[in-house]
Specification:
This protein has 306 residues and is an alpha/beta fold. It is built from nine helices and 15 strands. The protein has an eleven-stranded mixed sheet with strand order 1-8-2-3-7-4-6-5-9-10-11, sandwiched between helices. Helix 1 packs across helix 5. It is globular and about 60 Å long. The protein binds threonylcarbamoyladenylate and magnesium ion. The site of threonylcarbamoyladenylate has 29 residues, from strand 5, strand 6 and strand 10. The site of magnesium ion has 3 residues, from loops.
Amino acid sequence: MILDPRPENIYYAIETLKNGELIGLPTETVYGLAGDATNPSAITKIFARKNRPNFNPLISHVTSLEMAMEYGVFNENAIKLSKAFWPGPFTIIVPRSENCEVSDLACAGLETIALRMPKHEIAQEIISKFGKPIAAPSANLSGSISPTSSEDVFQELGDLTIINGGKCEIGLESTVVLVLNEVTLLRHGSVSIEQIETILGEKVWVADKDDESPKSPGMLLRHYSPKAKLYLNQASKQNDEILIGFGEMDCDFNLSTTSNLNEAATNLYSFMRKADALTPNAINIAPIPCTGIGIAINDRLMRAAN
Ligand code: TXA
Ligand code: MG
């Protein structure tokens, strides 16, 4: 059931979390399937509900750096990055603190923990009133397209307490960095590598690209995929196929008629979902420039087409 964010519904959502049950949580990136990060039974439910392999760790969501530091060990770089990009679409992976109360299952048994402070007001309200970190992967079945509206969550997961926070402003999952002695970008997002390097004043490694760098378990999997076959860099439309366009062109869905990459990111997943619902033979996507958030868009598209 989709609930508007009235006080009594927020209260109900928090009670649901306290009971070890799950909710659909709006954030500025994508909707999350949220549960108490410290409760192994809630975490087990998250993995089961998404059909997610249990080696793929979850992000724990917090409302302050102080709160994050209870669960992870923040070195100077991690502190700099959190101060620059929190609250926002930015996830920091650091070693787990000695008495970290987040369930081992949420971290998939790793020595590290992923932490994010979302900017969405409803997410912040729910986490702060709940008082503990909230584990929340994207609220889609594993491998499928992340939801950017409460209706999308309902379509993916069916019956669930979903708090409606409107359409996600960013529309792509957070940038993920691993911060140890070196900093490695594990997932592209709206915070760019240039922005990160500017804050740190040092080079950032990129998983996938720099051979020896660590990789995020989740990025090894086929991901973000519609049911129809996806073809990238297509300029025109075939008869019984769908074309998702960018910029001025003849197409079925246009990510941004004005070639605005932020608008394209916001629309991408919902248009892929809409196109897929028409059960076409194929979904074609126009070329998207590989600059700014376009890098994250192309990264997702390449995995979806894989
Ligand atoms: O924007 C987002 O990050 C959304 C919203 C709901 O916050 N969440 C999200 O979660 O995208 P998920 O589970 O779909 O993606 C988390 C990614 C996965 O690729 C996972 O493998 C990686 O983060 N990850 C989590 N903990 C990790 C760790 N300790 N080491 C390496 N990678 C980790
Ligand atoms: Mg996901």
